[in-house]
Structure formats: C-alpha cells, structure tokens
Amino acid sequence: MLSLLNRNRQAVGLDIGSSTLKAVELRPTHKDGYELVSLGAEDLSPDCIVDGVIISKLPVSDAINRIFTQQNIKNGRINTSISGHSVIVKKIALPVQSDEDLAESIRWEAEQYIPFDISDVNLDYQVLGENTGTGNLDILLVAVKKDKITDYTSVVKMAGKNPALVDVDAFALQNAYEINYEPTSKNTVALLDIGASTMTINIVSGTDFLFTRDVGVAGHQYTEFIQKEFNLSFIQAQSLKHGDKVESLDFSQAAHVIDSVTEIICMEIQKTYDFFKSTTTVDHIDRMIVSGGASHTPGLIETLARKFEIPTEKFNAFKKITFDPKRFSSSLIADRAPDFAIAVGLALRSAEE
User: Fold this and answer.
1) Where are the domains of the chain?
2) Which of 89, 146, 151, 324 is most exposed by smallest CB count within 10 Å?
C-alpha cells in the first residue's frame, strides 16, 4: 500500500497546512532513489484555513502560484492530502470472500463505523492480507467527506493546476518514513506530525500501518496561549514563540507558557497511546519521530523523550533523498527537513497507485 511506487509519472507534493503551504518536486534516479528538484514554502494568514477548512480560497491558490513561479516548477500535476475530523481511518476484519462480495460488505461495514451519511463520503479500502490467527481478512478502511476533498481540489484547480491525487496526511507521512528510514525490523514507531492546527499520530510496525489519530492540539496553541498571557497580536506571539524579542519581552519570559502547551500535547499523545494499546496486542512504543513546524518548539523533543522514556528525534524528510548543494543549502535542508515530511511523502506518490 504505502511502499509501492509507480515511478513513471511524478507529481508535485503539496502540503496545504493551516499556516504554510509546502511544495516538493522529486525526480527518480537511476540508483532506485530520488533527487530533490524543487522545494518551496509560502506562509498563509491565520484566517485563510481554520481547523482544516479553507475559508479564503483565493489567497491559497495565489500562494500555490507563487511557489510554482518562484521555484520555476513546470509540472502542473499536484498530489495533496487532508487530515482532521473529516477523515476516518480504521482497520476492520471481514471473512474471506470474493472481490465483488467484499466491496458490498465494505460499504455495509463502513456504515457501522463512519459518523457521517455514507452518501457524503468517498470510501476506499485496501486488503492488508489474511490474518493467520483469525482466518479473516484485515482491511484498511478510509472514508473522507466529499466536501473536504472538493475544498482542497478546488484551490488547486483555481491555481491552474491538476489535482492528480488526494491522500491522507498519515499515509503520506508513513510513505516519507518508509523511503527515508527503510524500516526492516518490526519495532513499533510513532510518527508525529505537529502542524499549526492538527497533530497527526501514526503508529507503524516496520512498514505495517497499525493506527492513526488526528488531534486538534498543535502549534497554534503555543501562539494563542502566548497571545492571552501577554496580550499580544497573533504575529507578535508568533515572533516571541520563535525566539524573537517582542517589545520588552524575550523568549525566557514565555518559556513557562511554552511548557504548559507542551504538557497538553503530551497528555493527548498519552491518551492516544493508551487507547491504541487497549485495542491491540502491542504494549509499548519503541521510538518517536516528530515532524511539522511545531517540531522546532524549544524543549519539545527533549520533553517527549523524557515523558515517554523512549528515543525521540526530529523527522529527516531528506535522509535518503539526494540534492544538489549548489542549488539547495545543506543547512537549510537540515533545518527544514521536519517541515516537509508530508510534502515529500506526497511527491513520492503517483496517481496510478
């Protein structure tokens, strides 16, 4: 599912985040790898996308065009992805049956699990294989609200581009993980993407998908708490969060606020782990890899490692992807690698998968 790549028709990976658009273009190499061709990002004003809903489409489509123009990207095929409450991902088990019967069973089964009218969602599934313990088929069920898909494809079309594929953030994240980290063991790894408005938690064993959850606690909480604490504007609070001095305030004065939000994030991760462990035979997580803009928050990685007592690191989305150091600064690539994990995962996909 997540590692079969059709390498004939590449598309640009576009991560449409609440605060920033990120685009990545890759080229397959003769050594069965990938090379970075284009890399670009554009910030969005905080009212453009709220809780994953695109409120103002024109500024978003304009930002897409700016990235493509500035980076001289000629490929108009775009892969993008979505997350949040409009996305349902669930592993289910069904008796072995014909493909035709399975498709019918899936639809009936989906109605039991999906909290939306079945006619309002796009439904997809993948057979993961036969469970040797139960004799049933393990199936990954994915449902996404149609209006959410339309929102994201429409801004791509407004920018004059072709939406080739709409994925789910968790799967794009896992795709980037598999290519860059080449997992061979069955260690259980938690992939955390902490963006501006959503934290995606994806738990994998080797290359096997186990569980995912999207949480509405993420990077903007840091900004909002700082705003309230010091009566600042959103932009001032963002600056202070990033370590800049604002008026008479410096970062050290905001550290306690940062720490309090990190505690909330840790609580949400713990709740997710507890639920996951209660529904599977897996009793521990071996490692955490953190991506997204909030991964740069001072003290976050260290706090996660200490709280959960497991190795924790930032996601290196370019770990196995080559690039021309004359075109791309090595320090920039290293610094921004966690931010582009989902965009890289999307750029690795093709519409034929």
Assistant:
1) 12-223+256-347
2) 324
Nearest 5°: the CA angle 335, 337, 342 is 145
- pTM score over 0.90: yes
Per-residue confidence (pLDDT) for residue 159, from 0 to 100: 96
- Nearest C-alpha neighbor of 195 from the set 16, 13, 12: 16
Structure tokens at 31: 């050594």
Please give the C-alpha separations between residue 286 and each of 141, 190, 205, 260, 305, in angstroms, as whole numbers: 26, 8, 10, 25, 11
Q: What gap in Å lies between CA 185 and CA 269, rounded to an integer?
A: 23
Q: List all residues 6 or more positions away from 159 whose beta carbon is below 8 Å from its beta carbon.
A: 61, 62, 64, 65, 68
Residue type, 72: N
Task: State the pLDDT confidence band at 350, using cuts at 50, 70 and 90.
Answer: low
The dihedrals phi and psi of 48, each to the nearest 5 degrees, come to: -75, -45
Cα 165 from Cα 13, distance rounded (Å): 10
What mean pLDDT is reported for the chain?
Answer: 91
Q: What CATH number matches the domain at 12-223+256-347, 3.30.420.40, 3.40.50.1820, 3.40.309.10, 3.90.550.10?
A: 3.30.420.40
